[in-house]
Amino acid sequence: MTMATLERRAVLGLGGALAAGVTLAPGMTLLAAPAERTEASAGRRWAMLIDTNKCTPNCTSCLSACRKENNVPLFGEASRDIHWIRKVEIRDKEQRRPTVNLPVLCNHCENPPCVHVCPTEASFVRKDGIVLVDEHRCIGCRYCMIACPYKARSLVYHETKRGPESNPEVPIRSKGVVEKCTFCVHRLDNGQMPACVEACQGEGKGAMLFGDLNDPRSEIAKRLHTVATKTIRADLGLKPRVYYQGL
Amino acid sequence: MIDEFAAIKGDSQGYWKLLLGMGALLMLGGLAFIYIEVNGHGVTGMNNTVVWGLPHIFAISLLVMASGSLNLGSMSTIFAVKHFKQFGRFSAFLAIVMLAGGLAVLVLDLGRPDRMLLVMMHMNFRSMFTWNVFLYSGFTVLCFLYLWSMFQYPQFTKVAGSAAFAWRFVLTTGTGSIFGVIHAREVFHSAITAPTFVAISLTSGTALSILLLLTTFRLTERELDLRLLHALRNALIFFLLLVLYLLIVEKFTKFYSPAFYDVESWILTGSYAWLYWGGVVLLGVVGPLLILFNSHWGNQIGGIALASVMVVVGLFCFVGFVLIAGQAYPMNMFPGYEMSSVFQDGMEGSYTPTLWELMLGLGGVGVSGVLYLLGIRFFRLLPKKATAPQGWDVAWHP
Fold this sequence. Notes:
heterodimer, A: 247 residues, alpha+beta, Alpha-Beta Plaits, 27% helix, disordered N terminus, B: 398 residues, Formate dehydrogenase/DMSO reductase fold, two-stranded antiparallel sheet
């Protein structure tokens, strides 16, 4: 093998490597993207309908199910506890309408302000409309918490540990990172309902309904066409996907 | 008119004490960062309602002053006030060091500061934070070029100074827009929030420059012409009136609409009204104006210095008010309803900063202080003697 051949090979090899690099680089990221992103279907639009007439003040089955399913701990500090879903009581200031109890969670908006303000694209919208946080990309700047009008996000203020009762299917909550409801995306991808919905339909009063808005045969699509519903702060133009009946 | 520039000797006990003091603040900041990083933000006073606290007040105040620190340079380069040319180097350098201090606190208060590089790798151009990354780095580069041109290539000073001047307005608009664009927060969602930040950068930057020039010149026994100080006083008065105007216009606009009665009444009479009236209005604007318009105090070094201190404290109050009151005001999720929950919905957020946060914030001041002290010792940033032309005087005195 002559030196000229070697050099030519080296040049060709280098050129090939560069070409391959240039071709592949745009598709590569240093951090692996979550597998769910590729499994989601752009044809689906997951949504939730909550019938406030059925939601009773003392029932917290959706809250407990969410905590258990998603390894959401309670620190015992009211201002710092993590709440992916919470029960809210609302009272008409003029006392003309009855007091209503309802769960509030991430509204998985079509125009999510949390995603708009996130500097690292850690908050993103999955193909099926679910708003997620890539906890490996979140830098903990908390701008999304400032921007969310539903107070649906929580910063993890303390270290959390996996215990014997932790759900092995879901990571434990990560200190210094902002997290929120995922619509139990891991369950959806396995063909199951979100844990809160399942609990509400089982132990609870059946106030929650979940499904695909794009499927006209789905129960939620039919109900949204037949009953009067509202979304929270519809005036902000965010197009939330959590609907309320009886508000 | 422009005397020779000279670095300070920096061999006095006073200099070393100041440097050690600022270095100690920097170390405290470093310690606080490590402690918060190891233990999580649970050791701060922040919570899930007030998610930005004292470190952000320090960071944003330093960033706002960074932009305003360029005032003196811009006055000579853009507005051809020739006797301010001697402060051009000081001005551009001060802008850089204030920016460094502010950014240090901002980055070190992240929940995951170890992932800071991700901001460079995954950019979301809809985010004001992403824009601010470019604005801050661009501003630093332009200030360096401006400084460099003043040192070595005076023919480029006009271009570099003009670019830095334009950039600083965009920069502070970007800082103010972090708050102004957020629709969910009624206290600070306003088109006028960003211009108010720009105006306050003008007042606080000028006030900081006055204080640093007075202190540096006095401690190094250099002469500072009182007429120059009077010119800065007049600029400060003009900027203060601009802030007052913007504050009044905002309140007038908001109170014109019944939709804002609740939030505006809360601002003026609620839990943080003391900070608004006492800190923002009285200490930050009206008090300094009363001093500077006074025919005795307004012409005295002591009076101008006191007014400048008040303006700088007023900036911290303004940023503190925007941040803390802005987050503490309950979010109006169900207009017409009162709400309550275990997540403190419908309640005012509470926030009591901890010592760690104060240390982290002061660490930023330490960064700026150390850099400033080293800068004036190793570079020819300040004139040996700052004078105005003979026979010249400012157009107006109180």
